[in-house]
Structure formats: structure tokens, C-alpha cells
Design brief:
Length: 462
């Protein structure tokens, strides 16, 4: 027997009231649908004065009014969704009460409560979240691509491992394997030659789980995904199988790592959300950026430096995050390269995904901290033809190819460098907090891990 699908309707006073009631009655007449309440979200100055009780009697179901202003009652919508626990929020309002921006804000509120938000020609479903993990866990997700998610994930994994929590990372990527793949980063030596062997077998050896295994020296599990929706869902992924595999391996704490703006479809105890402050402000504060931020227990702001983001923009994003998610801890950071091998007194070609605008900062850091001479740089790890041109330009002048493990780092950068007789050294990116006033990132991660373990134990005993 199919249960009733409960519906909360959003309406406005711009419509002639009998028309609104007719639409609600039609929705209510559909088999298995029950309209449990109606919220007037604007345009109420067009209605005759009357109490919510009087309008409830007229509409035949509970009615709620927002303030008689141009402000959309987002808090009222949240309160009524929490009160009635509907399966669907149906939007029967229209311009001028709602525009695109306001509808996306409503979507962020409703999706954040795990409820579908629908209108005449749109539908936003809540995230797919499989409840399959049998160990305490957290997920790492982001508001976009190229904001340092894998670097923060690798850093978090090292911090967690160094504090003896024995973690495993499950990562999904657009170049991941057909079946979830275990990489024993804690056991095998991952050399450039080893990665070339994997690449020659057809493995995408620069995929995120290989990077995590190399940088953190822990067990990782690689998965694949295709597509990414506005809310973060994917079209296909084998991450559920990867998560189930993680239940069986020798690990005590699990990290689910997102891909681009795609969110791991696995329910976890806690969430870390990365916000790239270099992103257009519109993408952070509009659309479904607030939805992602609202998921966070810890927000890590990345790229917090000129020329990628001004001090004014950084402060604006911090205040925005506080407004959207006042309970989340916020830590602003910058990235700095850290070679995994010795490059002292060597001439280096540095391959990175960082933009040219921060090249001097990164080069100065490498030369001052690691005693090398950076002869050339290339920002084209994600563009194979341009990467090859840059390598050919500098290959006779350098001793070392220093490269992040991204995109074409193995099949082009490592391959061409080894064939030319160069040493290949891989490079990590370390998140550094921009000011002591924000606290320690490593301590914040461990605090979140402890909270996740506490949440898991509480859930397990109930």
C-alpha cells in the first residue's frame, strides 16, 4: 500500500485567491498526495485582512503568512518544513514575488532539510545519501572545481593518521576505475616508475586516490563518477560499492572525498566544506552555494590571498558563511607547495594547476624553503599539448621535474621527464592558516574527528 505524500505549498497573494485554492485542491486530489499546509510568501497586501485561522478555514487546511514586506520568509519555510515533515515543497507562486535568486535561496533551505523542492517547470531533489558506513566518518566537499579539495583531503588524512585514528580515504573522480580500487599507500612505495607502470596498464595514475595514497601514505579506495548536478548529485558512481568496501578494510575512520562540485553520495557523521574564495562571489552566495555551505561542520576557505581574492572579498565571504551557517567553524587558508623529495641545489621545472597569477609566490616559496632554483614553470597540467610544449622548452635546462600529481602529471610530465633522464619529484600542496586568530586547522580537524566518533557511537547505541 502506497503511503500519502505530504505536500507544503508556497503561494502568493498576487494570484486571485479562488485560483490559488483551485490549484491546491487539484494537487490535493492527485492520488497519494496530501497538502498539509499553505504558506503565503509574499503579495499579501493584495489580500483582504484576516487572521491565519480565518484563511485556514477558507482554504480548508492550515495557512501561514510571512511578514507583510518584500522579504521572503525563509525562516518560516524552514520552520514549517520541520514541523510538517513533508515529502515535497510545491511552489505555486510566481513573479514578481519570487525571482530566480530567491527561488535558489528557497531551494537551499528546502534541500538542506532533505526535502524535494518543485515548481511548474523545475524540480530539485535532495542529495542521494546512502547510509552504508559501519565506521565513524566525515566527508569533504566543495563549492567548485580547482579549489584544493584533494590537497585538503590529503592534509586531513595525514593529520588524522598522525593522531593514530587509522584512516582510509574513499575518493571519486572523473577518471576513476570501473570497480573500486584499493591502493595500499601505507605499504607500497609509489615511485614515478611505479606510476608509469600503472599508466601503461591503462590506469589513470593521477586520479585522486593515487594522489591521496602518495601524499598521505595511507590506504585509499578509488571510485569513478560521471556528471554533476547543481545540488551536487552525480549521474553514475560506484562510490557506494567503494564505501561498502571501506567497511571491510583495516581502517578505523573513513573519509569520503568529493570530486569537483560533486558531493559523495554517502551519509557521514560530519562534513568539511571547502569554499574557494577565488570563485566568483555570485557562485558562492547565490544558486546552491549556500546549500553546500549549510552542510558544513567545518568550513575551510582556500585561495585567501591576492591576486586571487582581495582582503575585502575574503572578509565578505567569512561574514557570508557566518550568516548562512553560524554553527560552523571557519578557517581561511592559502596553499604552499611541498616537494616529497630533495630538490636542494637543483634546477627545477615546476608543473602545477595553480594559475599564473600566483606563480611568483609559489616560486619564491620553493626557492627560499627548499634551496632550489626554479628555471621554469607550467600551469598546464590540465592541458596536455601546452604542457608538452612547456616541457620541451625547459627540458635541457633543468635537473628535476617537480609536479603535482594531477591530470597529465604521469602520462605526460613524468613520462617525458623520465625519457629525458630527469629526476621526477612529486609535490604536495599544504594548506596554511592565514592568521593565528582563526586557530589551528589540524586541531580543528581532530576536534571534528572526535565529534564524528561521538556521533557514530551515539547513533550505534540508539
Amino acid at each position: 500500500m502506497t503511503s500519502l505524500k505530504k505536500v507544503v505549498c508556497l503561494v502568493d497573494g498576487e494570484h486571485y485567491l479562488p485560483v490559488t485554492k483551485s490549484a491546491i485542491d487539484l494537487l490535493d486530489s492527485i492520488e497519494h498526495m496530501e497538502v498539509v499546509s499553505v504558506i503565503f510568501i509574499g503579495g499579501t497586501e493584495k489580500l483582504r485582512s484576516g487572521s491565519e485561522e480565518e484563511y485556514a478555514e477558507l482554504m480548508g487546511r492550515p495557512v501561514y503568512f510571512g511578514p507583510h514586506t518584500d522579504e521572503i520568509p525563509y525562516d518560516l519555510i524552514r520552520d514549517m518544513v520541520e514541523k510538517y515533515q513533508p515529502d515535497l515543497v510545491m511552489d505555486l507562486s510566481d513573479e514578481p514575488v519570487l525571482d530566480y535568486t530567491k527561488r535558489f535561496k528557497i531551494a537551499s533551505v528546502v534541500l538542506g532539510l532533505g526535502v524535494t523542492y518543485e515548481g511548474p517547470d523545475f524540480k530539485f531533489d535532495p542529495l542521494t545519501q546512502y547510509d552504508v558506513l559501519k565506521k565513524p566518518s566525515l566527508k569533504i566537499l566543495g563549492t567548485g572545481k580547482r579549489i584544493g579539495k584533494t590537497a585538503v583531503s590529503a592534509y586531513a588524512a595525514r593529520v588524522i593518521n598522525n593522531n593514530n585514528y587509522n584512516p582510509c580515504v574513499v575518493a571519486m573522480g572523473r577518471g576513476g576505475p570501473e570497480e573500486p580500487e584499493i591502493v595500499q599507500g601505507d605499504e607500497i612505495e609509489i615511485t614515478p616508475q611505479f606510476l608509469m607502470e600503472q599508466s601503461d596498464k591503462g590506469v589513470h595514475a593521477a586520479s585522486d586516490h593515487w594522489e591521496g595514497a602518495l601524499m598521505s601514505r595511507i590506504l585509499t579506495i578509488g571510485c569513478r563518477r560521471c556528471g554533476g548536478g547543481m545540488g551536487g548529485d552525480v549521474f553514475i558512481t560506484n562510490m557506494k560499492k567503494g564505501a561498502e568496501l571501506a567497511n571491510t578494510v583495516n581502517a578505523e575512520f573513513l573519509i569520503m572525498e568529493g570530486s569537483g562540485a560533486a558531493i559523495p553520495p554517502i551519509k557521514t557523521d560530519k562534513e568539511i566544506v571547502l569554499v574557494g574564495v577565488n570563485q566568483p562571489l555570485m557562485n558562492i552566495e547565490n544558486f546552491l552555494g549556500p546549500f553546500r555551505i549549510g552542510l558544513a561542520d567545518l568550513v575551510v576557505l582556500t585561495m585567501c590571498e591576492e591576486p586571487m581574492a582581495s582582503e575585502e572579498k575574503i572578509n565578505h565571504v567569512i561574514e557570508l558563511v557566518k550568516e548562512i551557517n553560524p554553527d560552523a567553524k571557519i578557517i581561511p587558508t592559502v596553499f604552499r607547495p611541498k616537494p616529497l623529495g630533495d630538490i636542494q641545489n637543483k634546477n627545477v621545472l615546476f608543473a602545477t594547476t595553480a594559475p599564473d597569477s600566483v606563480k611568483k609566490v609559489l616560486v619564491d616559496h620553493l626557492e627560499s624553503e627548499y634551496g632550489c632554483k626554479v628555471i621554469g614553470t607550467t600551469p598546464h597540467l590540465s592541458n596536455r599539448p601546452l604542457l608538452q610544449k612547456d616541457i620541451q622548452k625547459y627540458i635541457d635546462e633543468v635537473d628535476v621535474m617537480l609536479t603535482e600529481l594531477k591530470a597529465a602529471a604521469v602520462d605526460v610530465a613524468t613520462k617525458d621527464a623520465l625519457e629525458a633522464g630527469l629526476e621526477v619529484v612529486y609535490c604536495d600542496n599544504i594548506p596554511l592558516v592565514i592568521s593565528k586568530e582563526y586557530g589551528s586547522l589540524s586541531e580543528s580537524i581532530i576536534e571534528l574527528v572526535d565529534a564524528a566518533i561521538g556521533s557514530f557511537k551515539s547513533k550505534s547505541t540508539n
